[in-house]
Amino acid sequence: MKAFFEGIQWLFENILFILHDFLRALELKSWFAANIINWGFMIICAVAIVYWCKQLKLHEDQGEENQDTTAHSFLK
Questions:
Q1: pLDDT of residue 75
Q2: Helix, strand, coil fractions of the chain, as percent rounded to 5
Q3: Burial class of 26 by CB neighbour count within 10 A (0 to 12, 13 to 18, 19+)
Q4: What is the pLDDT of residue 63?
Q5: What is the pLDDT of residue 64?
Q6: Where exactly are the transmembrane stretches of this chain (predicted)?
Q7: 66 with 59: CB under 8 angstroms?
Q8: What is the tally of helices (H) and strands (E) in the chain?
């Protein structure tokens, strides 16, 4: 049973955490490069928010937006 858990330990430490070890070592050289994944997510979210706002404005300009509080039956 001990060998099974040591096998799991070896798998995580030597295989699955290679990227994490690389990023940990990279942080000592460049903080911005070590956080490249975070920068990517922030850029994706910013683009999605801009697209969403443009779509909201487009539907509002076309008059498709129903601002009435009785638009849904559960709001009555």
A1: 63
A2: 75, 0, 25
A3: middle
A4: 80
A5: 78
A6: 31-53
A7: no
A8: 4, 0
Query: What is the per-residue pLDDT for 18?
Result: 93
Amino acid at 3: A
Backbone angles phi, psi at 50, to 5 degrees: -65, -45
Burial of 60: CB neighbours in 10 Å, binned 0-12, 13-18, 19+: exposed
Tokens of 72: 């849904």
CA-CA distances (angstroms) from residue 58 to 23, 43, 55, 73? Answer: 42, 23, 5, 25
Residue 76's contacts (CB-CB under 8 Å, 6 or more residues apart) are 70
Angle of CA points 42, 47, 56, to nearest 5°: 130
The predicted pLDDT at position 65 comes to 72
Q: How far apart are alpha carbons 51 and 14 in whole angstroms?
A: 41
Mean local confidence (pLDDT), 32-43: 92
The 10s digit of each residue's pLDDT in 45-59 is 999 999 999 999 998
